[in-house]
Amino acid sequence: MNTRPARRTAAAAAALGAAIALSACGSDVADAGPAATGEALTVENCGREITVDGAPDAVVGLSPTQTELLLRLGLADRIVGQAQTATAPLSDDLASLAADIPVISEDTPPAREALLDVEPDFVYSPTDYEFTAEQGFASHEQLAEAGVAAYTATGGCPERRMAGTVDDLFTDLDNLGKIFDVEDEAAALADGAHATLDDVAGRIAGLERPTVAQVYVEGDALTAIGAGIEYDMIARAGGENVFGPEDPEFASFFAAQINPEALAAADPEVIVFAARDAEHEQTTRDYLARTLPEVSAVANDRIVVISGSDVYPGSLSNIDAVRAIAAGLYPEAFQE
């Protein structure tokens, strides 16, 4: 197989980028309890120690999925900025809560100056990429100098990107619940997420697992996903991944650009792909129909589409994506 590591523009959009309806894990917006004051708390995150002296009260979500989680924890009155807002819409029940929160970037992570201008004391990011100084973003060191705590979703930590799982979300809920003194609200979200995953597991128990490939298409470039949270989503949804971390092309990165012939040789029964929007969904469908018409998934129209934002690390939508994929793999099991 001729492969090369996918560039961030494709792989991140496949791993991160229109939203599937929220399931029980995110159906309610919590009311935040009073912030703890004067008590220092330290948590470990991405191999770093993050210490807060009392619950933060000037927070920035560095992507819509992070902003959503903060809102569902009941922290609307503590959010001073939202970023990358054009990459995914907030659900209707949250849009009004976020309407007055300053937008500090739309298509990319915020520039260092834009982030620091809103004077945050805590930022929550899907990956460490949002802290890349070479891109003009505020680095961990620069934020620390400004007194800002920077938290990366556990599944987006560099050392977890290859081995991350859906369960990493529960680590984030536990940590954020303690940091913001909203442990009851975090526990309620976790309980809802566990209930959704348990429901999926119960519905698909004992059923024959179809073979699945998760891909991302940008222009004529075809990228396969073979590790990380996306890989775990397929497994949790009851699919048998045709690409995996044991394959050499995924030894050091969760995604790799492949030739169409490689996907044809794997001949998955189902193809899953993440779409940025309706236009991107259609162009991907057109590419598959034009390039791989004889692949079983294409020939039998067994294609499952999820939102690009559903695969952002540290997102409640990770849970929704598992259910959506499972419903696509086993439609009979999800008929109500």
Total strands: 13
For the biggest sheet, the summary is: 7 strands, mixed
What is the N-to-C succession of helices and strands? EHEEEHEHHEHEHHEEHEEHEHHEH
Radius of gyration over C-alpha positions, nearest whole angstrom: 20 Å
Q: Can you give the helix content as a percent range?
A: 25-40%
Strand content: 15-25%
How many helical elements?
Answer: 12
Low-confidence stretches: 1-37
**Average pLDDT over all residues:** 88
Top CATH class of the largest domain: Alpha Beta
Q: CATH superfamily membership of the largest domain, which one?
A: Nitrogenase molybdenum iron protein domain
**What is the number of domains?**
2
Instruction: Sum up the overall morphology in one term.
Output: globular
Structural class: alpha/beta
Brief descriptors of the model:
Rossmann fold; signal; Iron complex transport system substrate-binding protein; 12 helices; 7-stranded mixed beta sheet; ABC_transptr_periplasmic_BD; ABC_Transporter_SBP; 2 domains; 336 residues; alpha/beta
Description of the molecule:
InterPro entries: ABC_Transporter_SBP, ABC_transptr_periplasmic_BD. Keywords: Signal. It comes from Glycomyces harbinensis. This protein has 336 residues and is an alpha/beta fold. The chain has two domains: 173 residues, 3-Layer(aba) Sandwich (Rossmann fold); 127 residues, Nitrogenase molybdenum iron protein domain (Rossmann fold). The protein has twelve helices and 13 strands. Strands 1, 8, 9, 10, 11, 12 and 13 form a seven-stranded mixed β-sheet that branches. A four-stranded parallel β-sheet has the order 5-4-6-7. The chain has a two-stranded antiparallel sheet with strand order 2-3.
